[in-house]
Write a structure and sequence with these properties.
The radius of gyration is 22 Å and the shape is globular. The protein has helices at residues 24-29, 55-58, 67-79, 91-103, 117-134, 155-160, 164-167, 187-190, 206-214, 240-250, 272-275, 303-309, 329-345, 347-363, 394-405, 427-443; strands spanning 34-38, 41-44, 49-52, 110-114, 142-146, 178-181, 219-224, 254-258, 282-285, 297-301, 371-377, 380-385, 408-409, 411-413, 416-419. The protein has 445 residues and is α/β, with parallel strands linked by helices. The strands form 3 sheets. Strands 4-10-9-8-7-5-6 form a 7-stranded mixed beta sheet, sandwiched between helices. A 4-stranded mixed beta sheet has the order 1-2-3-13. A 4-stranded antiparallel beta sheet has the order 11-12-15-14, covered by helices on one side. Strand 8, helix 11 (272-275) and strand 9 form a beta-alpha-beta unit. The longest helix has 18 residues, at 117-134. It is built from 16 helices and 15 strands. The chain starts with 23 loop residues before the first helix and ends with a helix. Bound molecules: pyridoxal-5'-phosphate. Pyridoxal-5'-phosphate binds next to helix 5.
């Protein structure tokens, strides 16, 4: 694909923008500015082509700058740019919810709209509390998250999350009544597993220990990512998620899957719940819902959860929760156009047909000095590097920078390089992505 030479001026001043999850001073001294994107590629501000190995930030599943989405959003903005969804409604919000319900696991057919993954998580936690209360079990208030989990940056998501850098500064501001399961990353037992790791289903039994400690009558919900992305791609051991489901069922505890990265085709079916054949009670999504084009999230709920709220006087509001921009018309239009593309191009199952080539490609990096693990599932891949003594994360950060210089965008988290390309990736681009990464790792000290 050729770069169209549209000159984009460097902003005069990089100071004012306080960048999220970024080393601001390092970035501003050496800016990496993206100016255009199409399909599998970004172009930098100075016109260099960069292959997108991370779908932007795990969200651009159908590839960049899809005109169908832009046209749908423009048309919606010209027709009705905003309509409230508090005590009012607009048709495409209902259409989108129905379309999403049809994609979800059976009985997960009630949808609450948010604007991000973080809002989806906090919404799901609140729905869990309110659900138990609505059915007369208001003492069920405790949550169980997992070490190394990432559930966004709201106070709820941060509290159930388990990444120390996201938590340590805010330690005293955590939501009370939260415990964490152990994470499932164990390179000693599972290093270089192809697909799901065989060892570790028993780690789900830790949930029984926490139930014995607190009593099930006090526990509202367990929240996990079916596959964790942010902590460096952590896969569920074979049988682990089914075991969590069994223990939750036995103890009347809700199971929440955070599918913000696994949702919308990332691992070969619309949702990880379907791939792993484990249906949660609530499912949080965002990112791929609109192909990243407009911020939007959605929480899917089992019908039994929604129904538990539908009692009392019909004129009474059942859930005191929502956002001004819940089901924003432009976001609904973007999501509907995105779902059309996914359906037309078979993208929600494409990862399944590419996964064996993907697996072979990422595992070809095994054997390179300093590569201590390779992990993959669907169109997700990760390479873990041995940390530099006393300088954790710096080796992988250097790899990320060098890859970018060489025209490939990957994501660094700790000493892990993660990859999650748009689902439209072609075999030759998988080769380019992984070969470039391999060459860069070989050349790094
Ligand atoms: C599993 C998971 N949950 C929640 C979030 C938060 O989403 P957002 O950044 O849209 O708030 C993310 C973001 O990467 C995520 O990976």
């Amino acid at each position: 694909m050729n770069a169209q030479p549209t000159p984009v001026l460097l902003p005069v001043d990089l100071d004012a923008f306080w960048m999220p999850f970024t080393a601001n001073r390092h970035f501003k001294a050496n800016p990496r500015l993206l100016a255009r994107a199409k399909g599998m590629y970004y172009w930098t501000q100075d016109g260099r082509e960069v292959l997108d190995g991370v779908a932007g930030l795990w969200c651009v599943n159908a590839g960049h700058s899809r005109p169908e989405i832009a046209d749908a959003v423009a048309q919606q903005l010209n027709t009705m740019e905003f309509a409230p969804t508090f005590q009012m409604g607009h048709p495409i919000a209902f259409e989108l919810a129905s379309r999403l319900a049809a994609l979800a696991p059976p009985s997960m057919d009630r949808v609450f709209f948010t604007n991000s993954g973080s809002e989806s998580v906090d919404t799901a936690l609140k729905i869990a509390l309110a659900y138990h209360r609505a059915r007369g079990a208001g003492q069920k208030t405790r949550f169980i998250g997992r070490e190394k989990g990432y559930h966004g940056v709201g106070f709820g998501g941060m509290s159930v999350g388990g990444m120390v850098n996201n938590r340590k500064t805010f330690s005293t501001a955590m939501m009370p009544g939260v415990d964490h399961l152990p994470h499932t990353l164990d390179i000693g037992h599972n290093g270089f597993s192809r697909g799901l790791p065989p060892w570790g289903a028993h780690l789900a039994n830790e949930l029984e220990r926490l139930i014995a400690l607190h009593d099930a009558s006090n526990i509202a919900a367990v929240i996990v990512e079916p596959i964790s992305g942010s902590a460096g791609v952590i896969l569920p051991p074979v049988g682990y998620l089914k075991r969590l489901r069994e223990i939750c069922d036995k103890n009347d505890i809700l199971l929440i899957f955070d599918e913000v990265i696994t949702g919308f085709g990332r691992i070969g079916k619309p949702f990880a719940a379907q791939v792993f054949d484990v249906t949660p009670d609530l499912m949080t999504t965002a990112k791929g819902l609109t192909n990243g084009a407009i911020p939007m999230g959605a929480v899917f709920a089992q019908r039994k959860i929604y129904d538990a709220f539908m009692q009392g006087p019909e004129s009474a509001i059942e859930l005191f929760h929502g956002y001004t921009y819940s089901a924003h018309p432009a976001a609904c239009a973007a999501a509907l156009a995105t779902l059309d593309i996914y359906a037309r191009e078979g993208l929600l199952t494409r990862a399944a047909s590419l996964s064996s080539q993907w697996e072979d490609a990422v595992h070809s990096l095994r054997g390179i000095p300093k590569v201590i693990d390779v992990r993959n599932f669907g169109l997700i891949g990760a390479v873990e590097l041995e940390p530099r003594a006393g300088k954790p994360g710096t080796r992988a950060f250097d790899v990320f920078l060098k890859c970018f210089e060489r025209g490939v965008m990957v994501r660094q988290t700790g000493d892990v390089i993660a990859m999650s390309p748009p689902l439209i990736i072609e075999p030759r681009q998988i080769t380019q992505l992984v070969e470039t990464l391999g060459e860069v790792i070989r050349g790094i000290d």
